Amino acid sequence: MKKYIIIIIGIMLGALGGYLYWNYVGCSGGTCPITSIWYNSTAYGALMGGLLAGTLKTKNR
Predict the structure, then answer these.
(1) Using one digit for the tens of pLDDT, what is the confidence trace for 9-45?
(2) Residue 11: closest CA among 56, 60, 58
(3) Whose CB among 29, 37, 41, 60 lies 3.0–4.6 Å from 18's, allowing a Cys bridge?
């Protein structure tokens, strides 16, 4: 579990960022596939946050 803490934090921060993006910027017309619905934007943010945090993770030798 300790091994994945950075990725988990990245997922949580990404999800929060995705939700906040939907809430404050979003897509009012409903034609944007990612930002028109809150859970799509939150899931996309969580995915991007996890991927970004995965690149920051250091390897234990």
Answers:
(1) 999 999 999 999 999 988 877 788 888 889 999 999 9
(2) 56
(3) 41
